[in-house]
Specification:
Elements: H1 3-9, H2 15-59
């Protein structure tokens, strides 16, 4: 196997490739943190709206006629 083929197959032999891997891992980590924060905020918002809706139904249960 030639040295050029070995360098193309093994990403970790080149310094530039390690920098690309590090930058990719950093950007993926940032995206994961941002998505986690968005999901937490959305979950809290949905939970509050469900509790509020349930409270309104419970408060007006005497007005419901079947």
């Amino acid at each position: 196997m030639s040295k050029e083929k070995l360098n193309n197959d093994n990403v970790f032999l080149e310094g530039d490739s390690m920098e690309k891997v590090y930058k990719t891992m950093t950007s993926v980590g940032v995206v994961n943190v941002v998505m986690g924060i968005i999901l937490i905020v959305a979950g809290i918002g949905i939970g509050v709206s469900i509790i509020t809706g349930g409270g309104r139904l419970f408060a007006n249960r005497n007005k419901v006629i079947f």
